[in-house]
Request: fold
Amino acid sequence: MAGRILCTNSLIKSFTGLTLSNSARNVVKRVEGTATLLQNHLPCLSASRNTSFFNKLPATELWKGVTSVSNAGKKRGRGKGVGRKIAKDLNKGQVIGVGRANILWPGLNAPIIRGKELVTQQQLPKDPEREKKLIKLRDSMGFFRVLRINPMDRGWSGSKMPGRSIGPPDAVGEDTFEGFDTRVLELKTVFIMKGNLGRTRRFSVLSVTGNGQGLAGFSLSKGSEVRSALRKSKNRAGQKLMHVELCDNHTVFHDFFCAFGKTKIFVSKKPEGHGLVCHRAIATICKVVGIKNLHAKIEGSTNLQNIVKAFFIGLLQQKTHQELAEAKGLHVVEFRKENGNIPHVVASPHSVRKPEEIPSNENLDFSQYVMGDRIVLKKKKFPPFYHGTKGHDLYLRKRENLRNQVKVRLDMLTHYGELRSFQTDKYPECRPYKHKKEVDEADA
Reply:
């Protein structure tokens, strides 16, 4: 479309000194015939711009320009509460394809096929209350608030990611990870220098996934964004699953020693009800694997990646009772305090060695054999500063007759259900005095 202008004779005469195209000359000639009518008028020149600073940039960039702080200001502690936006989201409540006309669009705000019929475009009755509902929804928004995390969903330290659950890995085709749970063990920011991009920031995520029944895997992945790094680590952990043997579905088969780098871990088997007494990363791994009772002691480096790798190496290297029996050619016998230390055979080999076939220098100690001929050093407790003083010696002499009272009371309650003496059967009055209130509660 050709542009049109209004100008005076003097302006037209100034065009004669310019080099114009044929189309431009025709426009000037047409204007010369009407220029005499416009001699008393001044040229009307006004600059118009259809774009501005406010409609060029998105809302996030506008907020950044208003609330951002320089790097020097950040180092001095400025701008700590800058991230809050005191604005309303005017797009809230609006859905693509739904507007004032209220038209049904197949494939946009309605399915293309409903049952066996093909949905067609049609006009729906208008909603007179639509504008009021949108205004009410926007006015009730208030300020942006930080979402509170349920205490059960928090990580090791408050709202940080390590220790939190990010769900099961994504399905691979028709294979789904039902019953799996993924826990984040480490989330940190790493930087790398490149010749063309310079210093770039990435996020490193170490996570472990498992179904709580002996199937688990871990993975270390990196990404340019936190969400992509978490998703990549979760899915890779699901592709690197390992099977771990569980003893009675609650603990390991035996004590073992494992190491990676400068990290050393001594793991001890514990009975049911003991719980997980170990590093928080090892406790998280045990939960996704299915181990409920265990004690682990770390010596050396506490690097998180070394701890995870060392513990998985130890879990995979442990042997079942049957494998131990076959390796030594002897019966594996277990003694338990809850069973009165009565020997119980848990595994037997196919061919048992005779006593004369066993060398005299062979190590037959079970704990030393499974620990790889290593012995855990149990350090003595450092005595308190008041040890050996006159007051402490006097206290020990007074408490000498009662030094085992707590253990004896607990043993009596466990075996007899009450506090009693060895002469209680002969003399029933050899029982601790009970108040009347306790007797009434027992009778009730």
Remarks:
- Residues 226-239 form the longest helix (14 residues).
- The longest strand covers residues 181-194.
